[in-house]
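Researcher: Please predict.
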Amino acid sequence: MSRGVRDMGPSPRLQPQYFITVFLCPRSLLCHPASTYPHLMPWGLHRYYGAGDLHFITCSCYQRQPLLGTARRRDLFLTVLERVRRHYRFVVVGYVVMPEHFHLLLSEPQGRTPSVVMQALKLGFARRVLAERKRRRNPAQGEMFEPSHHIWQARFYDFSVWSAKKQTEKLHYMHQNPVKRGLVESPELWRWSSYRMYAFAEADAVAVNHWVLKLKIRAPAA
């Protein structure tokens, strides 16, 4: 039984579905304290799922290559992210796509784990990029000039976000990342992040803070 949902004792023959919709106010997150973040991708990670925390995820391109270095590639990544979000039914609280890595702040998907989401996201994007490379390959170049088939680093970094303070810290870090890197002068100029949704409530390629949950609750056995 989910918290906040009360069983009123329907007939045993019925199996009702409750649809709970919760919307967050994005402007309540505009005050962002400063934060820092490690740059290395740790190995031997222990992932803790099931507590209902948000997850701050970092994933790098293979050998930190700028495989997300073009607007077309970043647009493609956001398209894949939105498809994966809809399929696995999780909430994207914030994101930023950089030339050689990305950050996500997301909820746990219903019935799955963030690891499953990351596998689907990385694989979906990689398949499209590799298919594009194959179409553009010049057979006359031979195998010597064949680019690597690797798109992503094997692992990803996952930090559990359990408080509102940490949530705003991670959002601030993501939105300021392009500015600190010198890619733009202000965060609203980088369109591959969730900043403009928070600052101006603009629609985005990825539905941000779309807190719509479909919960199936079975009636108690007779």
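Model: The two ends are 17 Å apart (CA to CA).
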